[in-house]
Amino acid sequence: MSWTPPSGWRPPHETDPQASSLPWWKRRYRWAGFLALGGLGALFVPIFVGLAFVMATVPIAKIGTDLSNASQGQILSTSYAPGLGGSRDVFMLQTAPGMTAAAAGDLACRVVRPTLAHEGFGKAAFLLLDGNERTLASDATLCPAPSPAAS
């Protein structure tokens, strides 16, 4: 007498000869594949976000250093607000204590505008601020016309 399986009984999925021909997302242990993909996503997404942040902030730090060096230390710090939705980029530049509006206007024309234009931010707005957050000069400050070179 031989043993016969009960009616409706099927062998386990792993022993099914067609199981290996199924794509992984249709197999019985597909949750392991989804878990692995989710783990990789959880690992790499923060890395890519961090890299994007670094790539966006390094040029701004360079501009801040260039402005400080070109102004011989008269510009102490640089903050950047990117223009979103069609608005202009804005640089807020903290000046050294004792900076007057006239000196800030000269600094805006002689240092800030050329440096920002050289770095590709020629159309960006900027504000030169004193220690009390008062605006001393801005991108709207009028610069004197260059004098013609003596021949």
List keywords for this structure.
151 residues; alpha+beta; Alpha-Beta Plaits; four-stranded mixed beta sheet; 2 helices; rod-shaped
Overall description:
It is a single chain. The mean pLDDT is 83. A 4-stranded mixed sheet has the order 1-2-3-4. A hairpin with an 8-residue loop joins strand 1 (75-81) and strand 2 (90-95). It has helices spanning 30-70, 101-118, and strands at 75-81, 90-95, 125-129, 135-138. It is rod-shaped and about 115 Å long. It is of the alpha+beta class. It has a single domain (23-138), classed as Alpha-Beta Plaits (2-Layer Sandwich). The protein has 2 helices and 4 strands.
Task: Give the gist of this structure.
The chain has a single domain (23-138), classed as Alpha-Beta Plaits (2-Layer Sandwich). 39% of the residues lie in helices and 15% in strands. The protein has 2 helices and 4 strands, in the order H-E-E-H-E-E.
